[in-house]
Specification:
two-stranded antiparallel sheet, single chain
Length: 207
Amino acid sequence: HFDSLDKMKLRAVLATEQRGICVYCERLLDEKKEAPPVEHWRPLSQSPESALCWNNLYLSCPTPDTCDDQKKYRRLLWGDGDPDLPWPTDAPYHDWLGFTHLGEVYVRADRALDEKTRKALELAISDQEYRGQKKASILNLNHRTLVAARKAAIDSERIKMEKDFPNRSVPPAERKNRADKMLSANNYPKFVSIRVAWLTKMLGKNR
């Protein structure tokens, strides 16, 4: 009966915990524009016992072709019999994933991930080839609109920096201070992870 429940208060609490961004792509959540769906990390159809498990509940943006709309009832794993990707509360996804200066997301090569976790993450991000067949991405996080939006986020940070430091190099301490301030805010800006990666000069690290 989960879909029939009134979830306004639930969404408000989840939005606060997620600091206002989609659990998957980091777009901004806008309750007034369109109520974001309450996403089950492990789908209800596969794990009905986790319907009200707090670690299994997140907000995802209602955007076509990515995130909740793309995932639907699929599990976050590579193949049948594999374990689901761990809940965000139990894994350092911010450390496992990297970003390029073009706005693409990837799984970092220097992180000690087991093969099933790495392949599941890669499939969550984009389409993969397996035995001559294409496996459709679970979340489609490198969809062209997302890639372009992340690139725009980098550009917006660069413009602000150039305005504050015209014709000057930015001290590393100032870049770190801006990243720390962003990460400590009650509400994140959209695509916060790639903004922080740009500020800390981590774009393309160990791709």
